[in-house]
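Archive entry: two folds, one per protein. Generate the first.
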Amino acid sequence: MSVGAARAVTDGWIVAKRNLIKIKRVPEVLVFVLISPIMFVLLFAYVFGGAIDPAGAVGYKEFLIGGIFAQTVVFGATFTGAGLAEDMQKGIIDRFRSLPMSSAAVLVGRTTSDVVYNVLSLVIMALTGLLVGWRIREGVVDAAAGFLLLLLFAYAISWVMAWVGLLVPSVEVINNASFIVIMPLTFVSNAFVPLESFSGVLRHIVEWNPVSTLTQAVRELFGNTDPTIPVSDAWPMQHPVVYTLLWVVLILLVFVPLSVRQYRLSSSR
């Protein structure tokens, strides 16, 4: 590791601790982070579960949890953008610039601290899922790989949100902008309904949507798929883990340098 990279990691960890300390000062943030996954699990399992019935022997609750996992970590990545937009508004970014620290440290710290939020969300969501009937039917290694894949994808998306957070003028704007992008990304996927319910061009979009492959990957790793139902012939759905990891690498290669560059150019609003 080069001196610059080591400094970015060290300074980034200090910034990450600063962001995590905010939990003690504003505990309401953590409360809403933990309530959201519980709400989504219960809402889809009991309100929509009776109307949505995927074919095969797998019950909807087991089918659902993989999609809820994917949706929650993607939505959780928006905290990065909102946090940076807030720091820009308050002038905190300018204060960071005046300090002898790596220019990437603020972004590394922000994205790293948000991994903690996602870990807490996954824990609460998994416990809620177990209470409503979801089970992990594969080994510990596969299950751990599933959770790790979710966190990696969320981390990559957080860099996209970091770039957006440095571009938009306020927290309100990034909340609205991220909703417009993330909502169709998660709902035009196999997260909540089986792939067979889509047809034509829309089906191809769903098959190549990285949220679909993330959902399919974690379902396979948790053992929540029905072997009697054939998987789509589309390459991403045949290799969901590889395809999702390719997206993670691509997003990081594009948006890490873009975010660092935008951080250097941005000024407080």
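Generate the second and append.
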Amino acid sequence: MSALTHALVDGSVIAKRNLIKIKRVPEVLVFVLLSPIMFVLLFAYVFGGAIDPGGDVSYREFLIGGIFAQTVVFGATFTGAGLAEDMQKGIIDRFRSLPMSRSAVLIGRTASDIVYNVLSIIIMSLTGLLVGWRIRGSLLDALGAFLLLLLFAYAFSWVMGYVGLLVPSVEVINNASFMVIMPLTFISNAFVPLETFPRPLQVFAEWNPVSTVTQAVRELFGNTSPMMPVSDAWSMQNPVLYTLLWIAIILAIFVPLSIRQYKRAAYR
């Protein structure tokens, strides 16, 4: 058995272990699913009448792409929190005593969190349909949008996994992730059009990968209009390609970094 096959097999066992925790601690899943519902309802009904995205697209259709992007990014924090918790409780030390691949814990953790993101996307989609969101594009494009969201979430989970191995506790990872994720999600086109930002923030938002994944899913869902203002930045003109480039870069950097940090952390 090759090293890669060994890591994938061991990782599937770790992923199963993480998913079994849903049965034992169902409250975690409940709050994971309630969060996107809260954001959809909050922005749709509280801010929906005050923000005009332009063109003939309603704010609720404009909003859902941003909520999707925000939720999958926030969902990546479960990877970091889960690893920090396992480190704190000494479970990682137990894994070390087993004849298993050193990368299996990270592979399993990031894979199991895809399930959380799939469930979140399903709940958001149903809630969005209730508040007036509709998919205007083709079924194939819509599936491509969901796949892009999951790929982006998977890549970002490796970032948070690396952070989770650096910090000493779950409380720290929650605060650290908040400081990173909040600027990324709110200085973007997730909730308001880019032209509403001052120019320096607008430039940042144009090249922010959260903006491009949001723009990409809006286009794939058909939630855009030729009359809506569009940035001339290359990233916003090619949001799918730019987002895929970010996914590749993040994975190329943080997969080896996370595995190396796991080995270091395990020996502390």
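Annotation attached to the second fold: The chain has a mean pLDDT of 83. The chain is about 75% helix and 0% strand.
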